Amino acid sequence: MTTSGDLDRLWAVVPAGGAGTRLWPVSRAESPKFLHDLTGSGRTLIQATVDRLRVLAGERVLVVTGAAHADAVREQVPDLPEDLLLAEPSPRDSMAAIGLAAAVLERRDPDAIIGSFAADHVISDEEAFAAAVTEAVAVAARDDLLVTIGIEPTFPSTGFGYIQMGPRLRAHPTAARVRQFVEKPDARKAASYLATGEFRWNAGMFVVRATTLLDLLAEWHPDLAAGLREIAADPSLLESRWETLEKIAIDHAVAEPAADEGRVAVVPGTFDWDDVGDFKSLSCLLPAGDGAMTVVGDPERVQAIDSGGLVVSGSGRMVAVVGLEDVVVVETDDALLVASRERAQDVKLVVEALKAAGRTDLV
């Protein structure tokens, strides 16, 4: 059982990074997807994330973001204390970002348990989310394990990594050992995973004692762990030491090798979750308007005749779509995207082509 004392040790860490290239031209390097209200809720993705986590952690919410986005985060979350916003000089992947937060919190509170939850995910059924996090905190507190929350798959996705569940942890309601983390599979393998009932989607959610995370990291990447602790001890070293840190994802650095040694647990998440990875994913999250067309923005600015799909209207111009099904139309002040929903993943190729052409002003 989780006690209120367990949750009193929880610090919510929000890594806010990534360019979201599959959501171009809405998401850009200077204005990534977590800074946008993509769901029409009136809150941007990072605002909704912070709202959700404050229910569990109160004011113990720390955001890690790139230096280029720090001012925007301050504007969107104005009540975030200055010392709870960490600005990375450059992207060094998820291990450095989460590890820096862990190192800072370890010094602030040696008993701190951190829960890392990305700034750009959409979650419904917040009661179920809170229950999963609460159980994960209990496992981290009592068993001193690295805990992840695995999402129950609703279809054989080839876009997510998977977690294989092992034996149950009998002292907890639903938690189990993790047998292994597996990379994004092909369609056939994904279907076989679902058939076993043992696999969950890897949503990149981790709950663990801050000290345990850094000690695990020190086993496989000692220089990275030492560098992060040095920066936390002396923040003036951030600029000079940051670029020397190894660039690696938390899954590869810690989660996968620790799972091989039986030191990772998973709590099944029963809530709806989406990482809003592309426009097809976004269209599935939103209710269709009149007819089959889903509109993000002002529906009065969209005329859809015998058409279905998604329109993201950002400039205030009128958008008319006639006789097209499963189409994605995204228009901003300086760019227009037209694609099929089935090719939504390939929007990233546009960004790559623009970079190759030197059009950094558009990406």
TrEMBL record:
Coiled coil: none annotated. Signal peptide: none annotated. It comes from Janibacter indicus. The keyword Transferase applies. Residues 12-282 form the Nucleotidyl transferase domain. InterPro entries: GMPP_N, ManC/GMP-like_b-helix, Mannose-6P_isomerase_type2, NTP_transferase_dom, Nucleotide-diphossugar_trans. Keywords: Nucleotidyltransferase, Transferase. Residues 302-354 form the MannoseP isomerase/GMP-like beta-helix domain. The keyword Nucleotidyltransferase applies. GO terms for biological process: GDP-mannose biosynthetic process. This is Mannose-1-phosphate guanylyltransferase. One of its GO terms (molecular function) is mannose-1-phosphate guanylyltransferase (GTP) activity. It comes from the Bacteria.
